[in-house]
Amino acid sequence: MQESNQSGKASRRAFLKGIMGTAVASTAALSLDAQARIHAPHEQETLKDYEEHWGFCDMCYWRCGLKVRSRDGKAFKIDGNPEHPLNRGVVCGKGNSGIQVAFAPNRLKQPMERTGARGDNQWRPMPWDEALDKVAHELTKVKEKYGPQALVMIGHGTWEKPYHRLAHAFGTPNTTSPVFGLCCGPRGVANTLIAGKNLTGNETIDLENCKYFLMMGRNITESLHNGETLGWIDGVANGAKVTYVDPRYTITASKADEWLSIRPLTDHAFLLALIHVVIKGGLYDKQFVAEYVTGLDELTAKVEQYTPEWQEAITTIPADTVRRIALEMAQKAPAVFVYSPRRLTRTSNDLGTGMSISILNSLFGVWDRKGGIFTPQTIKVPEIDLPEFPHAHVSREEGHGDFDFAHNPFAVDVEGKIQRADGAGVPGRWPLANPQYGLTNEMWKAMAEQDPYPLKALLTAGGNGFTNSTDYDTVRKALLNMDFYVAADVSPNEMNSYADIILPEASYLERYDDLQIGGAREGFIALREPAMQPLHDTKGSWDICKALSQRLGLEAYFPHDSVADMLDDRLKKAGYSLAELKEKGIIKKPVDDAINFPREHGGKSVFPTPSGKIELIPSQLQALGMADAIEWAEQPRPKDGEFHFTFGRVGFHTHARTQDNIWLNYFMPENLLWIHPDAAAKLGISDGETVEVKDAKGRGGKIAAKVTPRIRPDTVFTVHGFGHWDTRMTTAVGKGLSDSLLASDTREKHIGSISMGMNMVTVTKV
To answer: What GO molecular function terms would the record report (predicted)?
Structure first.
């Protein structure tokens, strides 16, 4: 560890050299017997010709461009599309393992009806027509008895769009996706309030030219997305300094110039002290602030108390370190970036943390400058022509999809339209929450408590409420409260074991999906087309929703005979065609520096806030009486014998989706509990021994210990996504401990998103 913390130059060289040496290392790892078989003489054979099909990956949410090879009607190799700007032709281990999604022996292969109790996994096969007829019949029964708003739709994947459309056509406003309330929500809201731009998802950062990265737990080498990771590597290779802030010494920390082992839940205090130093020392971009920023005087007064010495007692980061970092960044500005964690759902005031990150970036003048944040290009592709939805809560403005609520208030109007049950975007409840994606955590509670009105039918598309939420009892109660639950998915999991009907989906290698429309330095449209025929009796999501729409009298919302026809319709509205898109799998608008970096070319930045400027004290928060969001809120600390409980990602698993993938399970079949040697010694725990982890509610379980100095003594950590109990998950079942059992389930006080990082746990030797 000491060696890793010395000069960052040696670490960078080793990192970049290691990437080039991967193939050599892989060969060296093979046994001599295995190498002998590779080089054994054999008769020359001629391989059959293969076809290539275009796609974008579904193994995580970065959606890298793919070129999939197939032979004899079956996919056998996944490569990257070199033309795709999000990955430049690179595919990671998760992406390569997508083959095993299609060929998994235990995937969902035909429609099934539950014959036993919910969760008991007793099923009978049924034909598609019978299954779809039953779904339509049961949804209609719920609608007639309770109204259309009694249907909840929860989607989690790149294919969820048709289910949202079907639910809105049905007449319910209650559609959600975990991406907001359980992951990125506070980041997006913070940036939108301050700069009018939702800097999240596929971030528009000029990584290659950045000269200073302050990484607030953004573990970019393990929670990896290919294009972003490649850009960051280029930036490091080009000489960028990296300061990594995290309670744990991750792989990313090992590539940094310095690691700051911050106390969990205290990022906000550290950032407030940085803002204090930047303002008091006049280290901000004065020209940018004068032209583009409002609220500096008010912010100066608010951060007066947040000195470096004040934060030292909270974060354990020395005051002089804060002053030095502020000066170093100011000297490199505007080619600097304060890098948010991707998942910012941790504390009781994640909005304040997100705002502090956005404020610091803005004070350094990074917008529309080289090495900072660029303005993306996009290609406008209109939606297909559809009837209006039957409730007042959906905006179908161009560029916002057909289930975007961003421009509609959620008051009950004169026609008495029903508000969302989770309160997302609802005045008086959670007005800052984005109702396009909703608050999935709050929706589970509404379903469990049947409040504010009956919620009696559930449609899910992918996802797993047990492993992406943190309150098993509430999720289970919600599922048991449903009169009817239909799950559409590719693979089995704990949530869909509670369904009444399972509709098996074709994998992403076996179907068309809607267009991928991206905004990077190049604008682009990308294609996902079938690389093979479905191996089983499955259907794509659009085909499922079209078939249901016909049975529900909603066929006008799915007017095309095929998904390919729909894509061609959309493309022709934009001046292209499906045939043109099939040539390279992607259509691009070339890089244009004058558009990407207007302030480098005499142009102006545009900030779509109410004032048209960066608002350091957002006017929308003031109107809502929430201007205190920037203020520090005390967070819990462990008592004697307790630890902060933290969790995170590795590069070869995605959330809780991939532990049952045979290839990826090989790399990490189960998780371990990281604990510092000093803490372990006090508890008599040795490396590899089994321990029991529990929280104050008595939740938890057993897991093997990993004793390592790469974590703070007051903190323990485990990898997210393990501890599955569904016996259909034949590879993952019974392995490891679920972090969702131990993460906290309180609310962020301004947005309503979940606060997962506030639990303390005890660890005992078994």
So the answer is: 4 iron, 4 sulfur cluster binding; metal ion binding; molybdopterin cofactor binding; oxidoreductase activity
